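Researcher: Here's my situation. A collaborator sent me these components and asked whether they could plausibly form a single complex. I don't have experimental data yet, so a predicted model of the whole assembly would be a useful starting point for our discussion.
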Amino acid sequence: MLFIEAHNISKSYSKTLAISDISFDVKKNELYGFIGPDGAGKTTLFRLLTTLLLPNSGTISINNWDVVKDYKTIRKNIGYMPGRFSLYQDLTVEENLTFFATIFGTTIKENYDLIRDIYVQIEPFKTRMAGKLSGGMKQKLALCCALIHKPELLVLDEPTTGVDSVSRKEFWEMLQNLRNSGITIVVSTPYMDEASLCDRVALMQNGKIMQINTPQGVISKFPKPLYAIRSDDMYLLKNELVNYIDCESVHIFGQNLHYTSKSKVLNVNNLTLFLEEKNHTGISISPINPSIEDCFIALMTENSTSDAK
Amino acid sequence: MRTILFLLQKEFLQIKRNKSMLPIIFVIPIIQLIILVNAATLELKHINMYIVDKELSTTSRQIVSKFKASPFFAVKSSSFSLSEAMNDLKRDKVDVIIHIPAGFERNLVRNNKAKVQVIINSINGTVGGIANAYVSSIIAEYNKKVIADLVSVTPNAFSATPSITVTSSFWYNPQLNYKTFMVPAVLVFLVTLIGMFLSALNLVREKELGTIEQINVTPIKKYQFIAGKLIPFWVIALFELAFGLTVGKLIFDIPMVGSIPLVFGVAAVYLLVVLGIGLFISTLVDTQQQAMFIAFFFMLIFILMSGVFTSAECMPEWAQQLNHINPIFYFIRVIRMILLKGSGFKDIVNEFVALSVYACFVLSLAIWRYRKVA
């Protein structure tokens, strides 16, 4: 069953086109991720979903409610967590939660089951001002506030930006638990490693969706075998690989260079010889599985070359 | 209705937590009242005077002694040189020069006519005008006496000169006490300041902090949100008025002839206008800085045109027309009428209706302009 259906939506701010003709759908009870760098249009898209902006063209419906006509119903039934911490910093944890519960006409008690797992972690600080919480705590509180009225859809705009890696991991576990308890979740993130935790992802760049797939599907679509290459002088290695006759792409990924060749199968021996000629030592070339990030970069390069044409 | 209550609860909590709020509510009114009321007065005392008496006759000395005796003038120096006097005037050491030329007494007796030159520094027109009036009245007084003396020594003339005597009595402010006149006006500024700025800054603060984003996705209705922002500052400003009136009574002993509940009734409507303007401003702008400047712009115009420092009746026709949209003008007039004159509701009904219409208009504008969708 489709929960969100978006058809050909566009949105521009005066002259800047933020969202250009994108369509997607989200199934009920799905954890759906929008992955893309800053400025890809994720926040604009989320503001359209949450009825804070009106699209220039195209239609979006959430649970068959139209975002333009039925915005009142939608607002009652979604929880939105903006990218910027937007709770009252001069109210305590408990006061914030009570406030958001009451304006939705409910109480903390009524929906405590839903937030219990998250709230117990911040409960020891419930008399602390929200502004005085750490980054991870703030996100947990914001999630509680977005959940307190038992929404059918949760829209989270970059919830893990600026949060340490342990809290990020915890946060994604919470999201998965929430999805399992029946809430549809749409989340955006600039971190590629988080993409694999979603059920499906949409890879966004410059206001367009480049690909929609399951994380596994995205990876399996990677066109060529990928190799991790390293040597003792990484800086020179990159410059020389770029000049290698069979080189299609080479990117730095942590300790390694990720490399694809123009030919279907890389001739490892030839490449090793080439590098040895250039006096490289400690050369290692090994095939690896592509990550979402590899796929994203490949798609980006593909799009920019096709745009140039 | 319940939603509004929760919004109010939240606002009051935040106001209570705001550390600068208590001083704003309690210290500002006292300081403003004490400073402004004592400072902003048009009563002139001790005008510095330079006397150039080139004659030193009995008559001229009599005139000089009149000035010396007057509480309004302080004779700073005297000489025979008009140019020295002019130098002192230029250096701002004196404001008035009385020049009695040589042959003054002779002219007065022989020709029945003599001239005294009065030079007044009128950079501030009001002060110049008042100084001139004081000088003229002293000389006129003396003139009368001279006429009487001359008449009495001339046997053929009538024994008395006919004259019309004007006896004036000042109503509603018999001692022409400037403070009585100022306190109500300063109180109006005070509640206006508190109301307009606090409301204008509060809503835009939510925009700056991003909290409005979270509010906008909730089912809160526009009027509920505006009401939640309006009522707390309305209550604070009314409290402020009560506090200010108490201070005014205790320190300046201002008269309260009319009905105090009526003052509050009008204030309640007036504050809706002021708060509405503040809220409307804050729906238009994005930062507290912008809100501050725009609110300040309106405050300044409204205050200067309200007739506090210069009487509104003296303004040009177009300015008087413009005052029809100046809420401060209405309220200052009404509060003075009620407190000093004891006017009842019937006497102020026009102003009351004008303010009510204004309040409806501004508040609808603010609600209409507040957008939950960008």
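Model: Some features of this prediction you could bring to your collaborator: Chain A is about 35% helix and 30% strand. Chain A has two domains: 2-214, 223-289.
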